[in-house]
Amino acid sequence: MMKKILSLLSVFFLTAFFQAGAGPGPQEDYITKYSGIAVAEMYRSGVPASITLAQGLLESGSGRSVLATKGNNHFGIKCHSKWKGKTIRADDDEKNECFRAYVSPDESFRDHSDFLRFNDRYKFLFDYPVTDYKSWAYGLKKAGYATDPSYAPKLIRYIEDYRLYEFDTKTVGEVYASAGKGEVLSLDDGESYPAEIPESPLKMEEATLYRPSVAEEQSFSLSRTMYAKNGVPFIYSVEGESYASIASARKLFLKEILRFNDLDHEETLLPGTVVYLEAKKKMAAKGLDKYIVGKDGEKLRDIAQRFAVREKNLIKLNGLSAGEQLREGDELLLRPVRKRFRLWKR
Hints:
The chain has 346 residues and is of the alpha+beta class. The protein is 40% helix and 10% strand.
């Protein structure tokens, strides 16, 4: 009897010893390793760091899935038709599906941010504050990021169990300092991250009231509200207007206003249509790097009008042919590819 008691005590103390000496689990390791890039992406794209980390933990099995270990794909993003990078095959909703493969995990994190930020179906998420992780979690499920009915509760559990919400109010420097890595984040193009996180994430696009010059005020009725997007002034058409009538009011040739709006002939002008009054820009506003096509058949000209970019420049930038059909999930560059940020050791 005594021998049996001693044996049980030995097992108890050995178990306690190994548990006490055990290091952090795979979840904690994952958070320590990738919290810096998640916070950096929050400042760049507006996606909460807590959501990024929770999705990474869930989708990649804390970095241990086949997609993560062999393809650096931490978020289960599939190829879609215009993906030109490396690929990896894995079973998901169907067998042997095509997934994106990345050079590094950092590239996967960046692509995940862009996938949410520049995809119309996720646009409403960016109306939520970065600290409202519950709305983001349920919003992702509502937008169809995953088919799992318990996807949102799983994300929220990760966020609350591992206090990931704390990263939503941290700076990049604080994350690396607390981790003791002795590293700082730097952008190749000289940009720096703000000291404070904004209340709401960055907006995909914005139209502002246009302030005309004195000469413009004299040549255009002040009763007409003008707006600007990407620095290009425009108006919303009203009932009974045409491109010709707007051109006449602005003392422009008809061919000029058609060229400003990527048209080669006049067409019926529906009320509420955006009509640019000057030439659009060669690229989108800073921060709008790409656009993900939301549905088959979406026209390139409509996208060019939406972001105040010349259609011919989008064609050239993306290596497209005239009249090429766009498909859901296609990625269109709106600006030349920026240099990627790097982590510099001190």
